[in-house]
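Table 4 source record.
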Amino acid sequence: MNRIKQRFESLRQQGRKALVSYVVMGDPAKDVTLPVMHALVENGTDIIELGIPFSDPNAEGPVIQKAHERALEHGSSLRDALALVKQFRETDSDTPVLLMGYTNPIERMGYDTFIENAVDAGVDAVLTVDLPPEEAEEFNEHLKQANMENIFLLAPTSSPSRQKKVTDMAGGFIYYVSLKGVTGAGNLDVNSVKENVTSIRALTDLPVCVGFGIKDGASARAVADLSDGVVVGSVLVNQIAALAEQGETNPATYAEAVSVIIAEIREALDKNTLDK
């Protein structure tokens, strides 16, 4: 069984919500990301979403765009990300790792070569932001054969027909984007989240995780009862950016900083469960 399926099954049995944490590989330097990944897990992250640096991350807001820029300044690449996951697996064989990025680097490597290397590294899933389901059938089939999940996004603007098309193809979990626009934008509309997550759940048995707008324990709790988990990204990348701007070079300092954020969100999610 794929690690993502195992993790959600374990969480379901415990009555807990999934915490998915996003960071960009190589931001702000290659030696920072591995200790940050381990720190995220140690403080309650269930699934790591590792961003692949790309020169034109058009679905991202300014915060994450700058993270991509910082990573690219040090030459970080898809191959580096695969090597990093392999290194992560030397001491963590359980935590699911999802690669999130854009189609171009994967196509340049070649679907088969990418999947072969990803399986060897211990990657569990991919989310290609700019690969819609209409164009993903071949890639999706290859991923299934390799026991890898294909994660898809749904948004408040997704029509019922789009929801059906995505849920029919998706694996792992559905990533519901709670806001219109790019990452880091806007305020969370809990009523809209409830309506759309209910609609998605009517179409699939896959878990539904909510991202965009989750900035702290309070916002995580606000959607915890409405979904199977939350995705946290911009607040972590913001913290990394702040340290980078200060000229910080110690990877342990970055790990400690993200630990504080994740521990607070994890506590809020678990308190939500215990309060029921």
